[in-house]
Design brief:
The chain is mainly alpha-helical. It is built from 19 helices and no strands. The protein starts with a helix and ends in a 5-residue tail after the last helix.
Length: about 500
């Protein structure tokens, strides 16, 4: 155990949980004011660094360093390509896609950042914005941290911790107070990033159970659901990486593929395929300009609830997803790592968004989806289930969707516990099970506190605020990785 990192991180998380639980209303007001301050004064910073991270990893992948292997020159991957990509998808974006796959396009369609809503033009723009939020920049952020960790851990023999990525800059200080501070920031970012996802997931599970079985949507029920799913995640934690996360990820991939194919066949298939091609073209044509779009000439608070929230969410998740994909990517080349992690999850994500988002949009545009927009604007977690009501076998498919959300919930919690435990163990992967159980329970507690202290706005604030200090760490990770790679032979 790295005692300073473990105990300070645990203490800060416990203090936050006590504050949020004991001073509920004050915490809610504080979260709102903090979010407003960061969005107003540092929105430019979030947009700038995410663009920088994306272009940086492209440069590394297609430079002379692309053939460098993440491990000794004779090392080979530990997992098959299918298992590897399934684990990437489950850990990286699963809960969020289930929550926002219908809700986000419909919200932008009904209430676009600028212009008139409810039109075909608004529908096209809604899908463009949704693609942008879930596209290459998100995974570029994950890749930066994952690439640096895998390189320094498996090729240079340093501990699998965030501070190791700064070794070329600070040397042996990665084992001292400076390195511990970096790792504590990574733990906090990971904890609040995962808690955000778990909070979104449990809101959607509660909405699904309300639709299916009439379970009341309430904070108390959501806390109860978190408790039940945290117990399942704890069992997966005890089972370990290969028995727990691996098998759940494979089950997730199969269920997600089933749900995707069902909507593709049950929905307007030809229109969905056409929209996918058009959405992809729009995204590729506009991704650079969107990456710098701040709506500075329009008076709107839209950015804080959407683009800046997403960018902060990706940054706060980057220690978690970055370390997890590093842990499962030993033996791959840098170019293979970057290109595969960019294209495989993003490609599946774009298909998912087109099938789910455009099905809802087409139903709204032709008048047969009455109620989807209204339901989403009034209660966003119900979006997916309102859509499924319009399709055949709604009850069965909704139940499959609930199961899928729960498994995504479990894999995120399990993976997050593994990552935080590795960070607080100084890179060790054989820590006592009780420590991973402690982190799994802590995630459930923090998610519960955020839900009770402000719901979705509190979840957004947790991501935006925890991402701010870690974004500076990531800037130094870029420098450390570049400096480390300069010592590789041509």
């Amino acid at each position: 155990m790295n005692k300073p990192v473990f105990y300070i991180s645990a203490l800060l998380i416990i203090c936050f949980s006590v504050y949020g639980a004991a001073f509920n209303e004050h915490a809610s007001d504080f979260f709102l004011s903090l979010q407003g301050f960061l969005v107003t004064n540092f929105g430019w910073f979030y947009m700038g660094v995410v663009a920088l991270f994306f272009f940086f990893i492209l440069f590394i992948a297609f430079s002379r360093y692309g053939s460098v292997r993440l491990g000794p020159d004779d090392s080979r991957p530990d997992y098959t390509f299918f298992t590897w990509t399934a684990m990437l998808f489950s850990a990286g974006i699963g809960v969020g896609l289930m929550f926002f796959g219908v809700a986000e396009p419909i919200t932008h369609f009904a209430r676009p950042p600028v212009g008139e809503g409810g039109t075909p033009q608004a529908a096209e723009k809604a899908m463009l914005i949704t693609y942008f939020h879930w596209g290459l920049q998100a995974w570029g952020t994950y890749i930066l941290v994952g690439l640096a960790l895998a390189y320094f851990a498996y090729r240079k023999g340093l501990p699998l911790t965030i501070s190791s990525a700064l070794y070329p800059l600070i040397g042996e200080k990665i084992h001292g107070a400076l390195g511990n501070t970096v790792n504590i920031l990574a733990v906090l970012g990971t904890m609040f990033g995962i808690a955000t996802s778990l909070g979104l997931g449990v809101m959607q599970v509660n909405a699904g159970l309300n639709y299916q079985f009439g379970l009341e949507v309430s904070g108390l029920n959501q806390v109860f659901i978190i408790g039940v799913i945290t117990l399942i995640a704890t069992a997966s934690v005890v089972a370990g990486l290969n028995s727990g996360i691996k098998r759940l990820s494979q089950a997730n991939a199969i269920l997600a593929l089933f749900l995707l194919l069902f909507l593709l066949i049950a929905g307007p298939t030809a229109l969905l395929l056409n929209s996918f091609v058009q959405n992809l073209g729009n995204y590729l044509s506009n991704m650079v300009s969107l990456g710098f779009q701040m709506y500075a000439y329009e008076s709107t608070d839209w950015m804080g609830g959407w683009t800046l929230f997403y960018w902060a969410w990706w940054i706060s998740w980057s220690p978690f997803v970055g370390m997890f994909i590093a842990r499962i990517s030993r033996g791959r080349t840098i170019r293979e790592f970057v290109v595969s992690v960019l294209l495989m999850p993003v490609g599946f994500t774009f298909v998912w968004l087109s099938v789910f988002g455009n099905t809802a949009l087409f139903l709204e545009l032709n008048g047969s989806g009455a109620g989807i927009s209204e339901a989403v604007l009034n209660d966003m977690p119900t979006a997916l289930f309102v859509l499924l009501e319009k399709l055949p076998w709604a009850s069965v498919v909704s139940l499959v969707a609930i199961i899928l959300i729960v498994i995504f919930f479990v894999t995120s919690s399990d993976s997050g516990s593994l990552v935080i435990d590795i960070i607080t163990s100084g890179g060790g992967e054989s820590a006592p099970v009780w420590r991973r159980v402690f982190w799994a329970v802590s995630q459930g507690v923090v998610a519960s506190v955020l839900l009770l202290a402000g719901g979705l706005s509190a979840l957004q604030t947790a991501s935006i605020s925890s991402a701010f200090p870690f974004a500076f760490v990531m800037l130094f990770i870029c420098l450390g990785l570049l400096k480390g790679l300069q010592h590789e032979r041509d």
